[in-house]
Write a structure and sequence with these properties.
Blueprint (H helix, E strand, L loop, with lengths): L1 H33 L12 E4 L2 E4 L5 E5 L9 E4 L4 E2 L10 E2 L9 E5 L8 E4 L3 E5 L5 E5 L7 E5 L8 E4 L3 E4 L2 E4 L11 H7 L1 H44 L6 H11 L5 H8 L1 H10 L5 E2 L5 H11 L5 H7 L4 H10 L3 H13 L2 H5 L9 E2 H13 L3 H11 L3
Antiparallel strand pairs: 1-2, 3-4, 5-6, 7-8, 9-10, 11-12, 13-14, 15-16
């Protein structure tokens, strides 16, 4: 018996030591994770990190010749050459080529290319700009109104002439035809018809109002009767059951077993109005909402609506880093594709916010959508925000 007791004591001591070792190891691991990682370095705004050294970027109008190689040294930059420009801070070894206004395409030069900005072109007089995509435009000849049309808006360099049918005409299949009967665009022919029997129309409208009123009254009455019936039935059941001083959970369980076919939402509305409020709060949209919005469709809609010169300003306000913006411009020569990659990076931020998939499965985080609409309005692009709300039924 003594040996058995001694062996039991040894086993208990070994178990206690093992538990103590596991506890110490856990605390040590947790402490290590809380200690900041050594060697992390951040650079001042406008600089970038290369080989552990903060190097300054080249200013607009300049390109990179040689990166800095030691702490305290500066990047070697040089001016962009003839017919070249760079309109932002950068560390690119090449400048971008200046645009050439083409008279063969009815373009005229507004301002020449400078080292820090591209050439600005517009359509010549008698032509207007037609947008092909966010990067491509064409100059089309201004339209002339036909003899059965009148000019509502004069053609400008930005938009075509706007015409509408003259009075007494209506548009059908793209052309204006003379009015022959009452219809859209020919309301003047409807006056004689309505003036012949004004009392008939008034009687018809009055009858319709009476019918609708009766339907509403009947519907409200039926709803009130159903609610009263359910409440009375439940109170009668509770009286028959005579529940003892048990817990609220047992009472609710017994009610659920007795009334499996009753509408629990109606019962909850009578017993605890606060629970209905909680249900309404939980019925709101989740953090990640599909909204049947495809990410690429949303991005192309933004690229079509937001002016090209404001796209980078928008993605910066949405939290896309300068590194991502510059990488997109470096990897994609066409600025439309670069802008697409910037907005795609913003959409994929949904993965980090709440585990959704900004670009995966078409699920966007609701915070991203709200932030996008807010930033568009702050940039005086409220029309774009309203277009998105209308197109995707965002409330």
């Amino acid at each position: 018996m003594v040996k058995a007791g001694s062996r039991h004591s040894e086993m208990a001591a070994h178990a206690a030591l093992l538990l103590l070792a596991v506890t110490v190891a856990t605390l040590f691991t947790t402490t290590l994770t809380l200690i900041p990682t050594l060697g992390e370095k951040t650079c001042p705004d406008g600089d970038y990190l290369v080989n552990g050294i903060c190097c300054n970027k080249c200013p607009p109008g300049f390109k990179l010749v040689e990166k800095c190689v030691a702490e305290g040294m500066r990047t070697n930059c040089t001016k962009c050459g003839a017919d070249e420009f760079m309109d932002h801070m950068n560390y690119y070894p090449k400048c971008m080529r200046c645009r050439q206004c083409k008279s063969s395409k009815n373009e005229v030069e507004v301002s020449k290319c400078e080292r820090d900005r591209n050439t600005l072109c517009r359509c010549k007089e008698g032509y207007y700009t037609s947008t092909i995509d966010t990067e491509t435009t064409e100059c089309h000849k201004c339209s002339l109104c036909n003899s059965d049309e009148r000019e509502v808006q004069t053609c400008t360099a930005e938009r075509n002439t706007v015409c509408e049918c003259k009075e007494g005409y209506y548009r059908v299949k793209g052309k204006c035809g003379r009015c022959k009967s009452c219809g859209p665009g020919c309301k003047h022919l409807c006056k004689s018809l309505s003036s012949q029997n004004p009392t008939d129309s008034e009687d018809g409208n009055g009858h319709l109002v009476h019918v609708l009123t009766a339907v509403v009254v009947v519907a409200v009455t039926l709803l009130m009767l159903i609610i009263f019936y359910m409440a009375t039935k439940r109170l009668a059941k509770k009286t028959l059951l005579k529940p003892s001083s048990g817990t609220q959970e047992a009472s609710l369980d017994s009610q659920g077993s007795l009334f499996p076919n009753e509408d629990l939402s109606i019962i909850a509305s009578f017993e605890a109005p606060e629970s209905a409020t909680l249900l309404n709060e939980h019925s709101k949209l989740p953090d990640c909402v599909p909204l049947e919005i495809k990410t690429h469709d949303l991005i192309y809609t933004l690229l079509d609506q937001v002016p090209v010169q404001q796209v980078k300003q928008l993605v910066r306000s949405l939290g896309v880093t300068e590194t991502v913006i510059e990488r997109a411009e470096l990897d994609h020569r066409a600025s439309k594709e670069a802008h697409y990659q910037m907005l795609k990076a913003w959409a994929e931020m949904g993965c980090q916010v709440g585990g959704g998939g900004g670009g995966r499965g078409g699920i966007l985080h609701s915070l991203l959508l709200r932030d996008l609409l807010l930033k568009l309005r702050l940039m005086h692009l409220g029309g774009v925000a309203e277009e998105l709300e209308t197109k995707y039924n965002i409330h």
